[in-house]
């Protein structure tokens, strides 16, 4: 062999390099199907990954040697799923399939005939099915679609724990992390004008049932709400009530830790459907049409040195108004569907008109100071009282002062009172009535004080 001329060596090496994998593939009797967590479309999470995960956990967890336990939805019973890097087997019509769950992307591609639904080299987690090639048809046409469908059904029927996401930057990469969403706010408990409340709930219901309508009129299935009003008027509480009504996840987007438009787009695309995306205190960030942004005076004049919105940085390192708008109603906004986008602000007049114009934010909701209708809801929530001798006086005082529902609620909270000795002889309803009397009398005093002070300082007075 060493006597062969160099050019024959080269030819031989070329031949071996080219044909060995193909020959190996030809003789490899197994087929692999890879389902990665990351879809082939950039950024988008692959929903098949969740489907197959649910299916395998349900079907095969009993036979797996390594399982993972996480706290369940009720906070008590653990939720058991397959651990990463684990093998399980499944049988279908006499054919066997070996499933492999991995938390790392494949370091090399098998030379075998790989059918990869989502062929990524660097996906973080994947499931891989391996089966004999003589079962190829039954596996691809029958087993896999059936397994995915069962998994999807399982996810749908599981009482899905809803989540509250927020974005953060571990290292140089912006990503979402989450905790269970457990805010108990509901529309029943929300103190606001009943007609106004009904308008909002009707709008949400129309949105929920509007899939066909949105498709018929050629609009993306999403809705934008701008919540504005003074501090403590219930903007955050309303968002929680909306999330509970819609049964959606909430993504609380902190714009100040988003580096640029590309990162904003990535975060947006990583959100799932049936979600509310919230940007709170949008007025705290000044946005102008030229794309220059800085943190407004409210958060420190001119922004800090590590502010990712620093206007001195070049365009590639900023979130611009146009970036924000494409997130709200541009081409990108349509991806995923069934999304609600909410901006909140205490100073609607400070916002760029491009951001607030009708059509962009479908509904502007003003959260206002506490008037008598809203007060009655709070009195019922906090004191279980629907009528009282002091109500007329309170109605008048609420009309005369600009008091936020948060301040009224604070006055209605049970104070840490030392029970009198003779309380033990009274029924619980008598004690509750006395507590209500005390709280309402305290509220009257506080409102009177606020009215006196408002004469000298006409602006809203904090109690
Ligand atoms: N309309 C309301 N109905 C019921 N509770 C309310 C209402 N407004 C305020 N509260 C009570 O006051 C607290 C503060 O309200 P919330 O955080 O929702 O106000 P906000 O308008 O979002 O305030 P900020 O603008 O300062 O963020 C809530 O925890 C809630 O208990």
TrEMBL record:
InterPro entries membership: AAA+_ATPase (IPR003593), AAA_N_dom (IPR025753), At3g28540-like_C (IPR058017), ATPase_AAA_core (IPR003959), ATPase_AAA_CS (IPR003960), Mitochondrial_chaperone_BCS1 (IPR050747), P-loop_NTPase (IPR027417)
Sequence ranges assigned to domain AAA+ ATPase in this UniProt record: 221-371
Claim: ATP-binding is one of the keywords in the record: yes
Reaction(s) catalysed by this chain's protein: ATP + H2O = ADP + phosphate + H(+)
Cofactor annotation: Mg(2+)
Segments passing through the bilayer: none
Protein keywords: ATP-binding, Magnesium, Nucleotide-binding, Signal
Listed Pfam families: AAA, AAA_assoc, AAA_lid_At3g28540
CDD domains (alphabetical): RecA-like_BCS1
Record GO biological process: response to stress
GO molecular-function term, one example from the UniProt record: ATP binding
Family (UniProt): Belongs to the AAA ATPase family. BCS1 subfamily.
Official protein name in the record: AAA+ ATPase domain-containing protein
Source species: Triticum aestivum
Gene: LOC123169107
């Amino acid at each position: 062999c060493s006597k062969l001329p160099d050019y024959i060596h080269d030819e031989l090496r070329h031949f071996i390099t080219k044909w060995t994998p193909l020959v190996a593939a030809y003789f490899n009797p197994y087929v692999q199907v890879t389902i990665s967590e990351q879809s082939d479309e950039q950024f988008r999470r692959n929903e098949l990954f969740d489907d197959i995960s649910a299916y395998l956990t349900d079907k095969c967890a009993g036979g797996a040697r390594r399982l993972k336990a996480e706290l369940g939805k009720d906070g008590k019973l653990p939720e058991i799923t397959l651990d990463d890097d684990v093998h399980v087997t499944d049988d279908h019509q006499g054919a066997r399939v070996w499933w492999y769950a991995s938390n790392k992307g494949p370091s090399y591609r098998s030379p075998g005939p790989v059918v990869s639904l989502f062929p990524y080299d660097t996906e973080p987690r994947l499931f891989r099915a391996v089966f004999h090639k003589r079962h190829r048809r039954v596996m691809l046409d029958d087993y896999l679609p059936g397994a995915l469908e069962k998994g999807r059904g399982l996810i749908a029927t599981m009482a899905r724990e809803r989540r509250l996401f927020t974005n953060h930057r571990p290292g140089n990469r912006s990503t979402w992390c989450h905790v269970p969403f457990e805010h108990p706010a509901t529309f029943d408990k929300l103190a606001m004008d009943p007609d106004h409340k009904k308008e909002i709930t009707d709008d949400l219901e129309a949105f929920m049932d509007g899939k066909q309508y949105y498709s018929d009129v050629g609009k993306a299935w999403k809705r934008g709400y701008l919540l504005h009003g003074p501090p403590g008027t219930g903007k955050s509480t309303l968002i929680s009530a909306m999330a509970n009504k819609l049964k959606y996840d909430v993504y609380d987007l902190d714009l100040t830790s988003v580096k640029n438009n590309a990162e904003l787009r990535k975060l947006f695309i990583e959100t799932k459907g049936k979600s509310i995306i919230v940007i709170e205190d949008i007025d705290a960030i000044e946005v102008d049409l030229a794309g220059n942004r800085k943190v407004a005076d409210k958060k420190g004049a001119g922004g800090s040195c590590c502010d990712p919105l620093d206007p001195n940085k070049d365009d590639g390192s900023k979130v611009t108004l146009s970036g924000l708008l494409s997130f709200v109603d541009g081409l990108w906004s349509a991806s995923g569907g069934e999304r609600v986008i909410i901006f909140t602000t205490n100073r609607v007049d400070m916002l760029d008109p491009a951001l607030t114009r009708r059509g962009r934010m479908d509904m502007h909701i003003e959260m206002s100071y506490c008037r008598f209708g809203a007060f009655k809801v709070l009195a019922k929530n906090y004191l279980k009282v629907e009528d009282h001798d002091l109500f007329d006086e309170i109605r008048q005082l609420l009309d005369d002062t600009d008091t936020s529902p948060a301040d009224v609620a604070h006055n209605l909270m049970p104070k840490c009172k030392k029970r009198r000795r003779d309380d033990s002889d009274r029924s619980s309803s008598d004690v509750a009535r006395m507590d209500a009397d005390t709280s309402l009398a305290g509220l009257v005093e506080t409102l009177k004080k606020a009215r006196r002070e408002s004469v000298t300082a006409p602006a809203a007075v904090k109690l």
